[in-house]
Amino acid sequence: MDEYVIEAQNLTKKYGDFLAVDNLNLKIKKGEVFGFLGPNGAGKTTSISMMVGLLRPSSGKVLINDKEVEKIDKGTIGICPQELVLWENLTCYESLKLMGDMYEIPKDKLDQRIKTLLKDLFLTDKADTVVSNLSGGMKRRLNLALAVIHQPEIVLLDEPSEGLDPQSRRVLWNYIRSLRDDEGKTVILTTHLMDEADRLSDRVAIIDHGQLLKLDTPKNLKKEVGEGDIVEMTLSNPNNRDVIKYLENLEDIISVAELDGKINLRAFDAVGKLPKIIGALEESNINIDDLAIRQNTLEDVFIELTGTGLRE
Question: Where is the signal peptide (predicted)?
Answer without folding.
Answer: none
